[in-house]
Design a protein that fits this description.
The complex is a heterodimer of chains A (627) and B (539). Chain A is built from 6 helices and 50 strands. With 627 residues, chain A is mainly beta. Classes of the chains: A mainly beta (627), B alpha+beta (539).
């Protein structure tokens, strides 16, 4: 018996020693050498993309160099010591093009403590990471008190974040039977997240037909609501936080208003009563089974009004050929009672035209909608309405760049600047048309302020190489942020590599209304969603990225946060990047700017008949620390 | 001495590597000169006499406005055509521009012409960038080859329609045939059958490059209407949102020297808006960015519609058959308990007659008439398999108007066919029980089981009463409809198991004639025959 007690105590002691060793080793794992004022720390530690390198020192840092096992080097210089940017390493991107590595300024450098967000920086600039990639050594002009890797960027007890962004939790979503595939040119998983006005809760419209309402502190599910048929395509919480609105694509094309406290249905509206449904269409199969059903895609709340757009496609046969007839309508409801305030068209539906995203100005005064149809060769026609009454205030007929397009389209619609002074429409022919809304209201017709050519196609041989403007938004200073998608050739070219990359693809542009480029950021992936929010002191742009069907580089999946108050170009504005293995389908900022919510979906990276699933289907939420 | 030589050699190699390998020497600006598919180590062949648009770009990595001047020097044999405003008198390309911020990019497409008399080989294009008082240089390589070289060295080895996932011809399918899904979404949705979103027809094109230069080829695949010669427009594609009037599929293939490659072209089922019918398909192959095509392959194409009703019919028949077999076993006492030995013998005799007059002749004459009449052989064989069969069946029912008689009759006939002619297949095992169940149901509906259909006299014998014509027509109608249904199911089962496809009109003709008409005609005859035989039997 005594022997056993001794053995047990010894084991306990060994275990405790081991933990203590690991704990302390973690804090100071380095063996350092000093040579001519340079301190070298042998590290050899593998890391993941969400790791932070945290360091503390009493001395002033001039630079830090990170040397990686794949011969990449990243160098950080403190801006006060050197105003010039110098790059030290070069790497080739997946297209084989040499990229120059710029210096990235040390983040959150204060009081002798700093962090380097490896996830943001490494894969963006230093090459492809895999499981075996490690930091081999760190070189600096200072000796560190502590240097360690952590992916625990936020202190759960105190809430203190080491860096701007710290993940606080996640909520798993159900498995998707048919995940997105790398061949899909657009993100097909229509899931959305919406934070409550106070940021304490958030709602998710999930692929499995559930609306989830969750506590943002711990991801606890407070309630859920299942739509009986179809799939959810939009979710919004009302400005007073009392209602959760959700739209679906189904035979009924329902739009739901749910009580935010209980999840009970308050009211709903079936847009199929206006737009029709599958019964008036020829039988279809495949993806068309969804498109013949009404789809409530855009949900916007302003005060006590909620606005939606519903659309569908009807298949008819004309002279033995199948043809598509697009149908749409926009609505304004009282958010509490569901009573219809107005709709356009007032009676019936808009038939024969494709409709764009619906937008409503921040002040709730104006609503916009664009219609077009390439089959009937109808170029986009912009409508601006009185958002209170539905009265049409002005309209404008766009043209197209005839060389490449018989008609242009404007899927993302007409957006308003925060002061409603400007309206911008992004046409697929590569032009941005900016209207002077004030003058247009006065004249009763659209008055063009400027036309900017941004993504005009280029020809490689006989093949037009194109990109497209996916989304755009005005900043609070009336600067225009435009996101562009990936490069593609003709719609049915099955090549994965276009002959050339369009130089303006997968980018974020910031322009003024006169067309002057203010800053630009070239991402490596296709933007899936964005969110721009500001308060008195801060203004952030959040852009989520899905897959790039051309490069198939998963390192670009995730979301970026840009601090628009920072001076300089995009490199100075990058606040954080969070990498997801799967595609980031949506990411949103809480209105108080203290939290971020992001949905990740699984993607099949194998473009043959096999499977290679990456990522997890989940909603992650993050704490945000401001400067 | 050797050391010095080595040092000099090292320096020389370093220098030459720097000039010819295309390394960037500017930290703040990235220079790119991209030929289609000619990025990095890929080298593309330009055919002589061809035109190509090359992309030239400069990207900034500083947030600073900088005025930049660029010069491109082309080798002999390559001529810049457009845009004119950036082409100098001596054929150089020159331009000045400003870049303002990080990732700001200036680009121009330069249209190049490859002179026809240019010798084949590798050529360098060099350019330089001037800004801030410094000059930066870069080179890129390309190959130039003649059209004759292309024709001699690029071979189309195989063009398989349809192909399987491995790129081989799909031997299970008929050549040059597409099968599109039946677009009955209501049927599918009512069974909650999830459709495979990746259903597609595959086409495999195998090409070979036997030359010494790499080459990029363009493949163009179009389907035409056989009568009008117009290309068929695709129904839909989510990518097709830009208004392009694209009739077919277009792709590029890059082939290194001595390389074979199989390229798969994929047509999603929902993309095919063609109706069932005959078309033409055409594959054209040319050098990417060069004028004209040097290989063209044209063939007919047949488009068939896969009827999901087929699958449902097969499932339905299996279910009914199983129910029939189970029901027969469970209710065997009720069904067969009341039959006497004499009645069993009568049923057996009828089955033997049916086998002799139906099964054997049908087997003998089927091949002959199938050869003569093709698919319309049912017009002749139906006389046996339908008319004589129902003549016998109905007359038996008149003699023995009881449940279970049809089951015994069909089972006995099946056994005879199985043992003597070896006619026992998966299809027959499904078919016979289902037929028996359906005919029993028809009997029930027609009312031949009812006691007052053939009223008994006071002694318990059946009255020698002539059955009214209206009743006979009703029975004929019920059996006709049932047999029409059975004929429809039979065709669908055949289509399902043997992957055959019948035209809609053929199915209709078969169902109406062999199914309904023959049965409708012969049922009253069977009733009359049965009544006459009953007289003999009673007597």
């Amino acid at each position: 018996m005594k022997k056993r007690k001794i053995i047990f105590i010894l084991l306990l002691f060994t275990a405790a020693s081991g933990f203590a060793f690991l704990h302390f080793y973690r804090i100071n794992p380095f063996k350092s050498e000093e040579n001519d004022g340079l301190y070298t720390y042998s590290f050899n530690k593998k890391f993941s993309l969400n790791d932070m390198l945290v360091f503390k020192t009493k001395s002033e840092i001039e630079f830090i160099e990170l040397h990686f096992s794949n011969n990449r080097v990243m160098r950080y210089k403190h801006p006060e010591h050197d105003n010039n940017l110098h790059s030290l390493s070069r790497w080739k991107d997946v297209a084989g093009r040499t990229r120059v590595l710029p210096v990235v300024r040390i983040q959150s450098f204060f009081n002798g403590e700093g962090t380097i967000n490896l996830g943001k920086d490494y894969y963006r600039y230093a090459g492809t990471i895999n499981r075996n990639t490690a930091i081999e050594k760190i070189v600096s002009n200072v000796s560190f008190d502590t240097v360690f890797l952590t992916n625990f960027a936020i202190n759960k007890q105190t809430g203190q974040t080491f860096s701007f962004l710290g993940k606080t939790g996640e909520f798993p979503l159900r498995k998707i039977d048919t995940p997105a595939t790398i061949e899909d040119s657009h993100v097909q998983i229509w899931e959305r997240v919406c934070p409550s006005p106070d940021g304490n809760f958030f709602a998710v419209s999930s692929y499995d037909g559930y609306v989830y309402f969750l506590d943002s502190k711990d991801g606890r599910r407070l309630w859920h609501y299942h739509v009986p048929d179809g799939k959810l395509t939009s979710i919004v919480i009302s400005e007073n936080g009392k209602y959760v609105f959700a739209g679906e694509q189904s035979a009924d094309g329902n739009f739901y208003c749910l009580n935010a406290d209980t999840g009970k249905l308050v009211w709903k509206y079936s847009t199929s009563s206006d737009l029709g449904s599958i019964s008036d269409s020829l039988p279809v199969s495949g993806m068309w089974t969804g498109m013949v059903k009404p789809n409530v895609r855009d949900v916007i709340t302003r005060g006590d009004t909620v606005y939606i757009r519903s659309r569908r496609t009807r298949i008819i046969e004309v002279d033995g050929q199948r043809q598509k007839v697009k149908i749409g309508r926009i609505y304004a409801f009282d958010h509490k009672t569901g009573s219809l305030k107005w709709a356009y068209p007032k009676d019936g539906k808009m038939e024969g035209y494709r409709s764009s995203t619906l937008h409503v100005s921040v002040d709730g005064k104006y609503a916009s909608w664009v219609i077009f149809d390439w089959d009937k060769e109808v170029n986009p026609r912009v409508f601006v309405f009185d958002a209170k009454t539905g009265a049409m205030l002005w309209q404008y007929q766009c043209d197209t760049v005839a060389k490449y397009f018989k008609t242009s389209t404007a899927y993302s619609g007409a957006i308003f600047s925060p002061d409603a002074k400007f309206v911008s429409v992004a046409l697929n022919d590569g032009r941005l048309v900016i209207f002077d809304n004030k003058k247009s209201l006065k004249d009763g017709r659209g008055v063009v302020h400027n036309i900017i050519s941004l993504t005009t196609p280029i020809e490689a041989g006989t093949v037009p190489v194109m990109t497209y403007m996916t989304r755009s938004v005005f900043t609070r200073d009336n600067q225009l942020i435009v996101l562009t998608g990936h490069t593609y050739t003709t719609p049915f070219a099955s090549t994965k590599q276009p002959p050339l990359y369009h130089p303006n693809s997968t980018s974020i542009f910031c322009l003024n209304v006169d067309g002057e480029l203010l800053w630009r950021f070239t991402a490596g992936s296709n933007p899936s969603s964005f969110d721009l929010k500001y308060d008195q002191d801060n203004e952030y742009l959040l852009v989520s990225f899905a897959h790039n069907v051309r490069s198939q580089d998963i390192n670009e999946h995730g979301f970026y946060v840009f601090d628009l108050t920072k001076e300089g170009g995009s490199f100075s504005k990058i606040k954080a990047f969070y990498h997801t293995d799967g595609i980031c389908v949506d990411a949103q900022l809480a209105p108080d700017l203290n939290k971020i919510f992001a949905i990740e979906a699984v993607i099949d990276m194998d473009d043959t008949q096999g499977v290679d699933y990456r990522g997890k289907h989940r909603v992650s939420f993050f704490g945000v620390k401001h400067d | 001495m050797i050391k010095k030589i080595l040092i000099i050699l090292f320096l020389f190699l370093s220098f030459s590597t720097r000039v010819f390998s295309g390394e960037d020497v500017s930290d703040d600006y990235l220079i790119r000169f991209e030929l289609p598919f000619g990025i990095g180590s890929n080298q593309t062949v330009l055919g002589k006499g061809s035109y190509v648009n090359a992309l030239f770009s400069v990207e900034s990595f500083v947030h600073k406005k900088e005025n930049i001047k660029v010069n491109i020097i082309l080798p002999e044999g390559l001529k810049a055509i457009a845009p004119q405003e950036i082409i100098t008198d001596i054929g150089e390309i020159q331009s000045e521009f400003a870049l303002r911020t990080e990732n700001d990019i200036w680009y121009r497409l330069v249209r190049l012409y490859v002179q026809p008399d240019t010798p084949e080989g590798k050529y360098n294009i060099s350019y330089q960038l001037t800004f801030g008082g410094k000059v930066y240089k870069k080179t890129v390589s390309c190959w130039i080859a003649s059209q004759d070289y292309i024709k001699e060295n690029i071979h189309l080895l195989r063009f398989s329609v349809p192909a399987d996932k491995e790129g081989n011809p799909d031997l299970k399918r008929q050549e040059n045939t597409f099968v599109i899904k039946e677009t009955n979404s209501r049927l599918l949705s009512s069974f909650n059958i999830k459709e495979n979103a990746h259903d597609a027809e595959l086409i495999a094109v195998e090409l070979e490059n036997t030359g010494e230069f790499p080459v990029t080829l363009s493949l163009d695949y179009v389907i035409y209407d056989k009568n009008t010669g117009e290309p068929i427009k695709w129904l839909a594609n989510l990518r097709d949102e830009q208004g392009f009037d694209v009739p077919g599929i277009y792709t590029q293939v890059f082939l290194k020297p001595d390389q074979k490659d199989v390229t798969m072209l994929r047509i999603a089922s929902q993309d095919i808006s063609m109706m069932q019918g005959d078309y033409k398909q055409k594959l054209s192959i040319g050098v990417f960015a060069a004028e004209g095509t040097f290989i063209t392959e044209e063939r007919p194409l047949r488009v068939e519609e896969l009827n999901t009703t087929v699958a449902v019919s097969a499932i339905l028949s299996v279910v009914i058959s199983l129910l029939g077999i189970v029901g027969m076993l469970v209710f065997r006492s009720a069904l067969f308990g009341g039959l006497t030995s004499r009645e069993y013998i009568l049923i057996g005799l009828y089955a033997a007659i049916a086998f002799s007059l139906v099964s054997i002749p049908t087997t003998i004459i089927y091949n002959i008439f199938h050869a003569i009449l093709g698919p319309f052989s049912f017009l002749v064989t139906g006389i046996f398999s339908e008319m004589i069969f129902y003549l016998l069946l109905i007359s038996l029912i008149i003699l023995l108007p009881r449940r279970g008689v049809i089951l015994c009759f069909i089972f006995a006939k099946f056994l005879l066919g199985a043992v003597i002619l070896g006619k026992i297949t998966a299809l027959s095992i499904i078919w016979y029980p289902m037929r028996a169940v359906m005919l029993e149901a028809a009997l029930f509906i027609s009312g031949l089981y009812e006691k007052d259909f053939l009223p008994l006299d006071v002694s318990g014998h059946r009255k020698k009463t002539r059955i009214p014509e209206s009743r006979m027509l009703w029975v004929a109608f019920v059996f006709g409809i049932t047999d029409a249904f059975l004929a429809f199911i039979s065709l669908n089962i055949t289509m399902f198991f043997y992957r055959l496809f019948y035209a809609q009109w053929y199915i209709l003709a078969y169902v109406l004639i062999s199914g309904f008409l023959y049965t409708f005609i012969v049922v009253p005859m069977g009733i009359r025959l049965g009544q006459r035989l009953k007289k003999v039997a009673v007597d």
